[in-house]
Amino acid sequence: MTIFLFDNSLLYYNIIGNEIQQAKM
């Protein structure tokens, strides 16, 4: 369960990171 939540956090972090990168461009 903890691993699943951790994976979800990383996935969210990656998506948000991509949004920020595109916003800067």
Instruction: Indicate the proportion of strand residues.
Output: under 5%
**What sort of overall outline do the alpha carbons produce when their principal axes are compared?**
rod-shaped
**Spatial separation of the terminal alpha carbons:** 37 Å
Mean pLDDT: 85
Extended strand count: 0
Radius of gyration: 11 Å
Please identify the structural class as seen in this structure.
Answer: mainly alpha
Number of helices: 1
Describe this structure in words.
It is rod-shaped, with a radius of gyration of 11 Å. The N and C termini lie far apart (37 Å). 92% of the residues lie in helices and 0% in strands. By secondary structure, it is mainly alpha-helical. It has one helix at 2-24. The model has no long low-confidence stretch (mean pLDDT 85).
